[in-house]
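Help wanted!
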Amino acid sequence: MVTAAAPLQSTPAQTNADRAGVLPTNALLDVRALSLAFQTSEGELPIIREVSFSVAPGERVGIVGESGCGKTVTGLSLLRLLPEQTTRLSGQILFEGRDLATLSARQMRAVRGRDMAMIFQEPMSALDPVFTVGEQIGEAYRAHFPVDRKEARQRAIAALAEVGIPAPERRCDEYPHQLSGGMRQRVMIAMALICQPKLLIADEPTTALDVTVQSQITDLLRTLSERTGTALLFITHDLGVVAETCTRMITMYAGEVVEDAPVDDVLMKPRHPYTSGLLRSLPSLSARRSVLPSIPGRVPSPNAMPPGCRFAPRCSYAAEGCQVRQTLVALGPQHSVQCCRAAEVSLPGAVN
Amino acid sequence: MSVRNLRILFPTRDGSDTVKAVDDVSFDVFPGETLGIIGESGSGKTTLGRALVSLIKPSEGQVLHQGRDPATLGRAEFRRHRRDYQIVFQDPNAALNPRMTILDSVIEPAEVLKEGNDASRRKDGLAVLSRVGLPREFADRYPHQLSGGQKQRVNIARVLMLRPKVIVCDEVVAALDVSIRGDVLNLFADLQREFGLTYVFITHDISVVSHISDRIAVTYLGKLMELGSAEDVIERPLHPYTQALLSAEPLPLPTSMRTARRIVLEGEIPSPISPPSGCRFRTRCPVAQPRCTDEVPAWRELKPGHWVACHFSTAEGPPSNNAISQHDSKQGG
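Answered by r_m:
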């Protein structure tokens, strides 16, 4: 899988100039300096700051980080699913070269579900309890294609079969409460993929599921992506799931992208202390009954961001240069990191 | 603690049937050890944990605390007795009263037991708070001012206030971020060394359970499938379910280091209202045989201290397709 060149983050003008030269024009999604703030009664609350990354067609990219790092908000903002009145968005969301951030609500509706779809953590709250799953899946298709109910139903049945639901003709007429958690998530995937979107955003799709069902769903997402060429943006806190599903991993911290690298590289040799800390705190990688490493402190709240490197207060490698704002720098063609000490420190990864 | 043929049944809402949450389970918990209990949701592990600390009455069988059955104790005696057997729950938010300060929440258990006076309770409360790593200024705060990890520390402090012998930990780190999970698990380990505590650690997270446990019990649909030392169960599982469960765990390893191919289990855990006949796991077992339908597998000790409920497991390992066909042909001949 060819990955688009790592985005450089500096002044917007320079960013665009650099990228125009380096970036293959085939990036499916190209997010450039995306910032987002919520309006609150106490003023504006900045949530994500100049996030840049790209997804190539058919590529599977994982976004990881602790809760409160802005992963979900990033996913929602790509589909413009955040309330317009209270959200201020800047930067570009280039999807097949078109900037989604500037589309009208009507134009956006034509993209949502058609070219780009999303599935969520809790399938029960994303499904309508008073309609059968077949009607809901069919509706997603009818929103974009002029077909009658009968054909929509046939398409829904085919979609259910595609995601591995046994007896799809029968399941099609059942209501969400009649299905188990794993089945509901399959229904969500069927609904998201029925229009054959080019990009599927999956926000913690397996967090509410048991580990044996989780492995079924991640296998399903990976094989569907491989077969249909749908790109996947997988938002999760579980680094194991990213390692098994994705080809590239983006680490977010406090509303910023701090590392962007191929999964195998970053697991062996993370270059940002935060990525390294996340990897090291996994119990499966420490000797049994040993003291587990952890990252001290917690993610700063959006209205109390430290100046300079946002991770510095929790970072054991923090030094002089960390007092100034960090930029995402390319270390290689596919690896970029937002840490001024990346070149001088050697960080432990998943395997040493 | 000893669990003897424990069975816990709940009636369904219309009363026509029963949910067999825990079905004929027997095991021991030794003083000072950490017993991990793993299983998927619906395997009855939470019900089992609650029964261990007398929050749920057994329908049949017994839970013995140092040889005594708490169900036979008088009211006053039971109250004194149960302080030794405490439980910490999954959701750190739901377990704290939002209108009480942290210190008040921590000393509440001692108040209920009418232990000491206001001043001594306050002093003890501050001492346990500092023991779980919360600075003095947290004492007068309210739960909403704390993070999830800090709230879980408060819950641990509340339980420590009673100086229990046994703590049942029900998914205590499931709601926490990986980055702070380690801290809380380290705290549990420190407290165990310091106070000689016995833990029953209930979780669905294999990496957590294998890290902290001395022994591990694997549950499925209300039954124990396997029980043994953590090392044996994780490194050399003997039950096909344990094997599948371990292989389903996503590992953060690069492609080049992945070795064992995952065993994908078909379907999901069946309903505990009408569990499958014979072996509970047979409907999803990759190596199920006709015998598994007819006969409930015996709880066998295949290696010293390593118990398995599978007809075909041997001390060498779980059954493979080959081994079973050989076995069958031998039986046939």
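OP: Thanks! One thing I noticed: The radius of gyration of chain B is 22 Å.
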